[in-house]
Every structure is written in structure tokens, then in C-alpha cells.
Amino acid sequence: MARATTATSCCTHHLLPLLLVALVAATTTTTTNHAAAAAFNITNLCPFTVWPAAVPVGGGMRLDPGTSWALDVPAGTAPGRVWARTGCSFDARGGNGTCLTGDCGGALSCASYGEPPQTLAEFSLDQPNGQDLFDISLVDGFNVPMDFLPELNQGGTPPPPCSKGPRCPANVTAQCPGELRAHGGCNSACRVFKQDKYCCTGNGSITCEPTTYSLPFVRMCPDAYSYSRSDASSPVFTCPSGTNYHIIFCPPLDLTSSIPAPIAAPDSNKQGKVIAGIVISVIGSTSVFTIVTAYIIIRRRTRRHQHHEVHEEQEFEEISFQGMPKRFTFQQLQEATDRFRDKLGEGGFGSVFVGRIGDERIAVKRLDRSGQGMREFLAEVQTIGNIHHINLVRLIGFCAEKSQWLLVYEHMPRGSLDRWIYHQQGVVFPSAPPPPLDWETRYRIITHVAKGLSYLHEECMKRIAHLDVKPQNILLDNNFNAKLSDFGLCKLIDRDKSQVITRMRGTPGYLAPEWLTSHITEKADVYSFGIVVMEIISGRRNVDSSRSEESVHLITLLQEKVKSDQLVDLIDKHSSDMQAHGQEVIQMMKLAMWCLQIDCKRRPQMSEVVRVLEGTISVETNIVHDFVAITPVNFGVNEIVASAPPLASDISGPR
């Protein structure tokens, strides 16, 4: 199980000693007499379902809480590994699906290794010295706690001369450094940074040592490999060939906590009987007390949960559904999405899946709840459902069943705008990537986004600030007509209030300067719109760390280019059509700069932006060419009219 040999493949079988031994076993011609298969008992003690996988034997299966999987592993299996997959969804036949962690190409029965992050149990059985070699590895990251222990004999001890097995019962994810966090687990530093010092490759293989990022792994799971180096101190465990093993997911922190310590027998049999009687009485009384207490606690929690669900259902029945979009059952949406099989994407509030109801394709967003009540959620649905505009994604319906909250939107076949304006960087197409969008298409998309925002800001009963305007939230139909999506961040602003005080939200790189003060109006959307316009016409991201230091930040670059009269340098160089319309594109840049004024009062209303795009008015000429704020000065919020935040029954913050 060799360590990684390149910085980009740091998460492979890494135990060099085990691989070398396996290689010797493969080349030797000596026939041993101790070959014996091993039985692996794989148990799930997690409070959730896992899908363990075993390679090269066993494949994989579903394992509900409290259940076990008996696996026979042939003698000589080397190298092998077992891991837990989490967050899986497979089709009705169980053959294809996806997992949040440990996925092996969508197969239920794995024939290949899983995708990190994943906690690994690694082994090489029946080696030439009559030993099994085994370990727990965190080189592929961490997803669930795990024990890898030899089965005890009748005396309650491992078979001699068997060493103890490795344990990793702590939840490493809870202490995972922010840079390594992943959905469902904690990545390794090697996988995230792909540098020699984290992967123990290249020059780093000579001086490879634990790093700051490996400290949580070392501290919480000292029995496990926590970085890629293999040396004499590596935690490899051994047992005689033929030993059976127990792999436990989410094991108890202390294996001995529920086992009474053995009592030494005194010289007097009578005294021993008295002591034994006392001990048995104490243990019996304690056990009864513990069981009764646990029963009372569980009953109270169950009643509280049932009361909460009944209260929510009562709230649901009391709410009027007049003006609400269509209500779906959870079972209907399960069937419409084939049990949430095809994921379109994942955002701050949940995952989006493609589905079909009748002849219409739909997009179903499965929401993550965060403290909202049923009444607040349904009030949001009612408000969003009453917003109808050709340039806003249409809400078709919703589902609200106990813990299941879902929103059903129209499906936009060409996906989000970011796929089309960044020259498809990192996007794999089945054939050649499409050509860059022409000027006419980009102009139309900008106009559609402006009209959608103008409707939200000025044509609804209350002004609605979107607060997360970015290319990922602009969706395209087959004809490249654009619609704004994702109203989960929306905030309603009463017409008699000038600002709303709110906590920071949205996406870094698209936030207006006044977010530093937290006094927000719909003009924050105007600033974000200006950034999106610049991304569309330049064909690049606002913040792009792959570029030279002076070009990383697009808006800073715009600030420099306009002062040196070199705006033409920012036109998308991948499109000859954009170059041919250079003067029109520069006029669009001037509109973007009007929107990017640091003082929010100097920015236009979105209705003014629409009129500029339609040719009925001209762009403001008195523009201050400073677009990036360093300190909270001159944001146009000096005379704040402090207001209470809108009620959650309007449109609340992120879900």
C-alpha cells in the first residue's frame, strides 16, 4: 500500500511496508502452510445509513444503523481496503447512483477505489512471515469514525501474539481546518493544495513531516496514518494469519466504558462470594437505574418531537393557500426526480435535482432547514410564488412535509451563465466546446438581467433586494434568454424605509462596499450587476488567482484602465465579434462603471439602466472612477434611517 508518488495522486494506497511485503509474497515460490481466509465483521453504529465498500473483494452494500455485514476475505488478499460511503442515493435496482463521500463511480458494488474524503481500513493478509498487516489511513481524508480490531478470543483478548488494532473513534470533521472542509468530511491537505510538502513527494519526500493541517488528524486519531510518509514509525498493526477482524463505523469513544473491570479472587472463598454478591448488586442496581433514566429521556424527547411535528402540521392547516403555488407531496417529487438521482448542482441552501412532471422538465431544490418554522417558510413560498416576470425563474410549486422542504422551479436547459462566459474553464463537454457568445447575445443577456432586477426593485408591492446577483444565479433557456434565479437570499424593503439593517450575505467577489456597514438597499444589487456586466464583456471572473498579480481583480484593473484610457484592453480577446463591436462594448463598460460607484446614491436605479440599454437615455458622464472601497467611508449611508429588519414572514434570510 505505497505512499503517493505525485502531488496530484496523494490519496492512493500509501503503506509502503505493506506493499513491499505483498510484492515479496507475489515473487516468492515458497508454499506456506499457514494460509487461511479471514472473516471481516463490518458493523454500522452510526445514527445514519452508510454504504460500506470492500476492494478487491466484497464490492459494497447498504448498511442501516445497528446492522452488520459478514465478509469472507480470501487468504493472500493484498492490498485491500474497506471504507464507508455516506449520503448515497441509488436507483430502484441498486446498480447506479451517487454518494456524497467515498463514491466509486456511481456503482453500489465497488470495483474501484472511492473518491475522497474517506476513512480507510487497509490490509494485506497472509504474508510470508505468517502475519496479517492492517491499519487505518487518513491520507484520503476523513468521513466517518472507525475502528479496525482483531476479533477477541474467549478470554476477551486478541489472539497471541496479536497486537491491538487501530482506533479512530473521534469526529475529525468537527476540528477540520476551514481550507480542508468538504461536504460530508475533511479532505487531506495533499488533495487540496497538491504540494510536495503536503504529499511527501519530490523534494518534500526527504524532509516530510506532519504539518499544521495534519495536526487535527494526529491529535484526534494517533493510531492512524495522517500524512503520506511511510517510515519505521508508521502505525502498522499485525496479527497471525487466519485472525478474524471487526470493522466498526462510529464506534464508542471508550470500548471499556460499559464493561466492568475484572475482580481479583481473594484467598477466602467466602469473602469472594460476599464481594461478588455486593458487586453484582451494585452493577444490577446501576444498570436498572441507567435503563430507567434512558427510557424517561427518550420518551420525553420523542413526545417533544411529536408535539413539534403536530404543532407544525396545525400551523400548516391554519395557513390559507389562496395565491400559493401548487403543493406537491414528497413522494410525488421522489418519483419525479427518480429518487433524486440526477443532481444539477449544490448551493448555500440545498441541492438541486432535475426531474419531470408529465411533459415538463423541472428543477427541484431540496432545502436545508436552519431554524425556520413552517409558517415563515410558507410565507416565503407565497411571496416568491406571486412574483411573475419573464426574466425571473418561475416557481411551479413546493413541498412541506415535516422535515422535507422542497421548491419546484422551471428547468432552464442551458444552465447557468458562468458556463458560457468564462470560456468553459474546467467544464468538460462531450464534443468541442461551444464558441464564445457574440456581442448581440451578451447584450441581450445583460438587458434581461437588468429588467428582472428592475421588476424586483420597483414594480413589486415591496422593494425586493436579491442580494446574490452573480453568473451562477443567471439561468439560460435554449435561445439564451436570461432569467434570475435563487431568491433564497431575498430581502423585502418597505417603501417608507431607506435602508434595511441586515447581516452579511451573498457571494464574495460580488458584494457592494456598503456591506462593510451592513446598511443595505437595493443599490447593493446594482453594484453586483456592474460586476456581472464586466465579467460578461471581458470573458473572465472578477477574481481570478490564475492571472498575474496586477490582473487578479477585474474591478481594480478596470479602475486602472479607465484612468489610462485603455478600456479596449478589457474586451474579451477570445471573440473576434466582441473586438469588432469595440466602441459599443466600451459604452457598456461605462454603464457598468456607473453601477460600480462606491457611493450607493450615485448609482442608477435599475429602471434607468434598462432605459440606457433601450437607448432612451444616456449614461451619466460625471462618474467617480474609484470602484473598490478600502474603508467604510462615502458609501452613501451616512444618514442612516435605522429600521427594524423585515419580518421573517416576508422573506427571511438564508435557509
What keywords describe this structure?
6-stranded mixed beta sheet, Transferase(Phosphotransferase), domain 1, 6-stranded antiparallel beta sheet, 14 helices, Thaumatin, 27 strands, disordered N terminus, 655 residues, alpha+beta, Phosphorylase Kinase, domain 1
Summarize the SSE layout with pairings.
Layout: H1 16-27, E1 38-44, E2 51-55, E3 59-60, E4 68-73, E5 80-85, E6 89-90, E7 97-98, E8 120-124, E9 131-137, E10 146-150, E11 167-168, E12 181-182, E13 185-186, H2 189-193, H3 196-199, H4 215-220, E14 237-240, E15 245-249, H5 269-318, E16 326-327, H6 330-336, E17 343-347, E18 350-357, E19 360-367, H7 374-385, E20 395-401, E21 404-410, H8 418-421, H9 439-458, E22 463-465, E23 474-476, E24 482-484, E25 491-493, E26 500-501, E27 519-520, H10 523-538, H11 554-563, H12 576-580, H13 582-595, H14 606-614
Parallel strand pairs: 1-15, 16-20
Antiparallel strand pairs: 1-4, 2-3, 2-5, 5-8, 6-7, 8-9, 9-14, 10-11, 10-15, 12-13, 17-18, 18-19, 19-21, 20-21, 22-25, 23-24, 26-27
Concise account of the structure shown:
The protein contains 14 helices and 27 strands.
Description:
- The structure is a single chain.
- The chain has 655 residues and is of the alpha+beta class.
- It has 3 domains: 16-249, Thaumatin, CATH 2.60.110; 326-410, Phosphorylase Kinase, domain 1 (2-Layer Sandwich); 418-614, Transferase(Phosphotransferase) domain 1 (Transferase(Phosphotransferase), domain 1), CATH 1.10.510.
- 27% of the residues lie in helices and 18% in strands.
- It contains 14 helices and 27 strands.
- The protein has a 6-stranded antiparallel beta sheet, covered by helices on one side.
- Strand 2 and strand 3 form a beta hairpin.
- It is elongated.
